[in-house]
Amino acid sequence: MKVSVGDVVLPGDFSEEIAAVGEKGKVILGPGLRKEVDGIYITKAGTLKKRAPNTFWVDNYQKRYIPARGENVIGIVVQKAGDIFRVDVGGSCTASLSYLSFEGATKKNRPKVVNGDVVYAKMLVASKDMEPEIVCVDSHGKKGRLGVLEDGFVFKCSLNLIRKILNPECPLLNSLKNEWPFELAAGMNGRIWIKANTMRETIALGNAILGSEYLSNDEIKSMCTNIASILAGHIS
Amino acid sequence: MAGLTKNMQLPKSVLDMKFMKKTRERIEKELENTQDHGSLYSNIITNEMRSASGNFISESSFIFCETMLDGRLSFKGMNPEIERLMELENGDKTEECSGEMVKDVSDDILAKKMEKFNKKRPNPNPVSELKNTKRKK
């Protein structure tokens, strides 16, 4: 069926709109779109979205992570294999993380990473046919925001929720950030790591994040004030 | 340099020499290979493949489609290191938005003050002018 931007789309649908834009200039086809010889076809069920000037993608509900280059993910070290760590990122196979791709690591000075550690890393190589590779440094060799996540609490959620809370227009983090001190790392693979000073605060933060999945912006705001007041002890 | 040597061909008179036999054979082989190349895949490469334009860029990640914050955040001093990075990033953004710094002294007042200042010193830099004239000579 022919579809246009904003429609609910199914795999096999095609879009003449995107093909027409493609004849004039460059078009970026995001996830869920594929170029065939005779047109642009949808490969996922969701809503077709567009960002000006020429980026198209399908926004779909998904819990299975498919590694993609450049994404920040949260992984759990499951094995030490010689020069590399095997890290479970939730994809079809484990990702490899070289022990040299940590800040300040050399052959003699190995990073202190053990099985079960949680790492926040960037996808360096992600291809269909190969094991993905992740790194904990940027191109300058600095760790930046990547590295081993100590303490805290990890939970899983849908990939959509990650995108929702990291959207600059989402009020969740803005309404929580002045309430109590906390730290958060959201991986594009549907894992969130949170850390707060007390267990109550950690649970409150986790519930706030998970609860915001199907709420509108106004509802999120009221939920956050509600949670904050419960935590402050105004309501028991 | 390598490109130049590749494109250059030895003159025929040189190739005809006795000791150039192996080189001559090699060059003939290379020529054959390049000529066969087109016909080798002619049944696989369709016209559509030739005419397919490269206007479509496939991107398998949402991070290039949607605007998103960085995934590592810290608030109210939980992790000062991360907060410093966040401030640096936000600082860049706010400066880009406003374009100008907040002024303590308005432009008008500054202009008046500067006028007074210039009147007091009619020739603010006579030494450098002298130097300039000397150089010109």
From TrEMBL, chain A:
UniProt keyword terms in alphabetical order: Cytoplasm, Exosome, Nucleus, RNA-binding, rRNA processing
GO biological process: CUT catabolic process; exonucleolytic trimming to generate mature 3'-end of 5.8S rRNA from tricistronic rRNA transcript (SSU-rRNA, 5.8S rRNA, LSU-rRNA); nuclear polyadenylation-dependent rRNA catabolic process; poly(A)-dependent snoRNA 3'-end processing; regulation of gene expression; TRAMP-dependent tRNA surveillance pathway; U4 snRNA 3'-end processing
Residue ranges that the Swiss-Prot or TrEMBL entry lists as coiled coil: none
Span of domain K Homology: 152-198
Name of the protein in question: Exosome complex component RRP40
GO molecular function: RNA binding
Domain of life: Eukaryota
Pfam name, any one: Rrp40_N
From TrEMBL, chain B:
Residue segments, region Disordered: 115-137
Highest taxon above the source species: Eukaryota
Pfam family for this entry, one: MPP6
GO biological process, one term: maturation of 5.8S rRNA
Full protein name: M-phase phosphoprotein 6
Organism of provenance: Mythimna separata (Oriental armyworm)
